[in-house]
Amino acid sequence: EIERSTAKTRSNMLLYLNAYLFEYLPWFFEKHPNVLFEYPDTPSKFLGSVFVKTDPVLDAEYKRQAKLLGKEVIYPVSLLSFTEGLINAVSKKANKNHMGSSLRDACSGLRRFFDFIQGRYGDIEGFAIKSNPIIPLKNVGYKRSGKTVKDTFNLGYWVVFRIFMKELAKGLVFASSKEVIKVLGAHEAKNLSDYNRELTKVKGFEHLNRVTYSSNFDRITIPTSINIGSDTLEIGEIISPEFQGSRTKNNDIGKKATKVTLANYQSPLILLVAAYAGQRSSNGGNLCADTFDQDYIRTAAEDPADTHVPLRVRTDKVKVNGLESSIQEDVMMVLCHAKEIRKHHSHKAFTEPRAYQDNDLSVHGHFRPLLQSTAGHTGIHPNMGPYVFMFEKWLKKHGIEFDSKLVLTPNNLTVERYETIRRHNLEELAKVQLIEYKGFGEPIPFTPLTPKTSLTPHSLRVQLVTVLKITTGDNEAVRMFTGQTDGTIGYYTKATPEDESTLSKVAKKVKNSSDVVPVAEQILTEDALIQMFDDIDRANNDIPFFAESGEALKALRYSGGRGLAINHTHICPYDNKCPEEVVNLHGYMNCHECSHACITSHNRFAIAAAARRALDEMQDYSGMILVSKNESEKEHLNLKYMEQVNIASCWIARHNHIRNNPEKFVIAGFDAIKQYSYVPASKVSNELLAKMTEVSGVPSLQSNALKQVATMIAHKISNRVSQQTMPALTAETQNLLRYDPVSFVVNNLNMLAQLQNTTPEALIEQSTMSNQDISFIEELELA
Question: Per residue, what are the HEC states of 511-557?
Answer without folding.
Answer: CCCCEECCHHHHCCCHHHHHHHHHHHHHHCCCCCCECCCHHHHHHHH
